Amino acid sequence: AQKITQTQPGMFVQEKEAVTLDCTYDTSDQSYGLFWYKQPSSGEMIFLIYQGSYDEQNATEGRYSLNFQKARKSANLVISASQLGDSAMYFCAMRNGSARQLTFGSGTQLTVLP
Amino acid sequence: NAGVTQTPKFQVLKTGQSMTLQCAQDMNHNSMYWYRQDPGMGLRLIYYSASEGTTDKGEVPNGYNVSRLNKREFSLRLESAAPSQTSVYFCASSDGPPSGANVLTFGAGSRLTVL
User: Could you list the pLDDT tens digit for every one of the 114 residues in chain A?
Assistant: First the structure.
């Protein structure tokens, strides 16, 4: 079984500051992948970043980076230099090894303040 | 540059009515999925299709049927809608099989209300 936990229902950050969105996961598999998606108020789901369990380096994509701590089973999303357009719901998701299903957390609503 | 297109975007049904949500992708992806999103629960997989001609149940398949009409199209049918099926439905597709690092591309969602 795989489980994703996002403990922050809502977060606020000042424009241009960095923010960390927490994600912890539970799996007994050694091989798995972690994903972050963004859902703006318009409703679509936008892929942000991926981290494989065997990747030695933390994933980065522009202003997004993933703080992967395997021993703690955490995969936190770090957004640097927040922008007003970053205001959205953010979902962490995981897929075990050969599992077909991508399991999502409950999400964190991020609000960027001007 | 359409990606994944879902129709309709909004629908209101009465309990017991039936309807079909349509999904089409123009990226030549092999795998397609239907998810539902409920407040505070993230997205949950209803059904998926790893390739044309195959479909498999996800986490919450009860009350739904699907058809992979061809490589492009994957429809979701509610035969007898119930208020518990009030939700936002997302169709998604991925290039490779539903495993590993394959990234899902999502449609814009369909908001369904069952009275």
Answer: 678 999 999 999 999 999 999 999 998 888 899 999 999 999 899 999 999 999 889 999 999 999 999 999 999 999 999 999 999 999 999 998 666 778 999 999 999 999
What residues in A contact B108, CB-CB < 8 Å? Answer: 42-44
Q: Do the Cβ atoms of B59 and B53 come closer than 8 Å?
A: no
Per the CB < 8 A criterion, the answer to whether A51 and A59 are in contact is yes
pLDDT per residue over B35-90, tens digit each?
A: 999 987 789 999 999 988 899 999 999 999 999 989 999 999 999 999 999 999 99
Complete DSSP assignment for B10-36: EEEE-TT--EEEEEEESS--SEEEEEE
Give CA–CA dist B7/A46, Å, rounded: 19
Query: Residue A38's closest CA among A16, A63, A58?
Result: A63
**Nearest residue in chain A measured CA to CA from B110:** A43
Are residues B103 and A105, on separate chains, in Cβ contact within 8 Å?
Answer: no
Residue type, B111: R
Tokens encoding A17: 């500051």
> Residue A67: how many CB atoms within 10 A of its CB?
16
* Nearest CB neighbour to A95, from listed B43, B99, B105: B99
Q: List the alpha helices (DSSP H) in chain A.
A: none
Q: Which residues of B touch A101 (CB under 8 A)?
A: 45, 48, 58-59, 98
